[in-house]
Amino acid sequence: MKDNRSNYIYIKKCLLILLFLYYKENISPDNLVLVSFGFHFDPTCNFKSIFTREKKERKHIIHIVKENEKNTIDRVDYINIYQVKDVYNPRLRKAKRGLYIYFDGYNFKTYGKIEGEQLSFETNLSKDHNVGELLFYLQEESLKIKNDYSASFITYIAKFFTHNLKTDLILGAGINEDYGAKNWDKLINALNNEFYADSIENQRQVMHYVGKELFTNSMVLKVSGFDIYTSLNKELYEFKESKSFDYTNSTLFGLVSYIKKKDHVSVITYNYDTNLEYLLRKQGVYYVTIYDDYAFNNKVCQCDIYHVHGLLPYSCQKQERFKDSIILNENDYFYLYNHPYSWSISKQLHDFKFNTCLFIGISLTDPDMKRLLELAKNPLKFNFIFVKKEKEYSESVFKDITTYFFTYDLITVWIDEYSQINDFLNSIL
Asked: Is the pTM above the cut of 0.85?
């Protein structure tokens, strides 16, 4: 199992390298596609890439092979990525017609041509670096390269995947922080504080027996007779707004603008509120909301919104249908875990695997979400997660987190301010 995992990460790194070389060669992400099957298909290859250049369709047959394997051919339309121990071994073969890429898991070096043009590139990173450092390095290198389609490598691959595949916005509580709303941790803490009132010692003693997990604590509140839905309604909607919902620099406003400009967008949200629906309605965007089994997904809608953890509209905390939809405490999560074929689980698994997903306002601390991401791995695809850099944190921490998220097929988009999310979304339209 561990060997398979290591091999999978190696293949994903190879995909990253290939896309970087296409960026370097100024190949349009709009005219590039990856193909896993064809009727005249070489079964020894991993996949094909097809793109248009100078008004002609070109293709490359991609082989990811061991150094000593002999089943690859030096041809114009072949790109062979060799797994080697040392990319600086002077005895490595050099391609005359196609392209050889030697990759030892840390550094890579190219020999040969793409479409008759000599391609020369190599890295010189330390042998103990991680994929986060490789991504940071490629991003920095891309800023030195003239590309007519994207300003950087990260925007290039995001544009490539969002243009080729259906796009999902995966939204967490962080998208509402611009307005003064609480993130997920603060929301649960607020419910706990209301339940325990001023008795912090009681809260500490309960946690001693049931643990500090947020979902466990919310279960204690429920079984103790606490009206959690009324308090949840208050925390979701009756906070003091720091800015109006018309604040154009907010994350939520930027998401609505992106949805308006995109052909069709699916939204998977873990939020219970209807703030997104409110702004879409104000902007005249036709959407459909799905939060339980009673769903009719009208295909003419510009946006499908899936509340996979339930929906609680304002002042609807007494209505059973909305209360029943809410996934909040550990018992609710046990239900999801024991019903893997439920619509909400199926939706997440399918879209994580086959669509391009942009994770926004999500911390990725939920083990259930990571389990789904693990199940939905796809060797030919990346998803993207926006993460804010905390001031005075070490750069090595950002690289380590980038590596960690990469193991879940996620490319990390680091931002300094939330307003940069909107800039990034506009750059990949």
From this structure: yes
Query: CB count, 10 Å around CB of 141?
Result: 16
CA–CA dist 257, 385 (Å, integer): 19
What are the pLDDT tens digits along the chain (429 aa)? 455 888 999 999 999 999 999 999 999 999 999 998 766 667 778 999 999 887 889 999 999 987 666 566 888 999 999 999 989 888 888 898 999 999 999 999 999 998 888 999 999 888 777 899 999 999 999 999 999 999 999 999 999 999 999 999 999 998 988 877 888 778 877 777 776 665 667 666 666 665 655 544 556 656 566 777 888 898 888 876 655 667 778 899 999 999 999 989 999 999 999 999 999 999 999 999 999 999 888 888 999 999 999 999 999 999 999 989 988 776 777 777 778 889 999 999 999 999 999 999 998 888 889 999 999 999 999 999 999 999 989 999 999 999 999 999 999 999 999 889 999 999 999
∠ Cα 80 14 77 (to 5°): 30
SS3 240: coil
Instruction: Please give the structure tokens belonging to residue 385.
Output: 């997660």
Residue 241's nearest CA partner among 231, 254, 250, 232 is 250
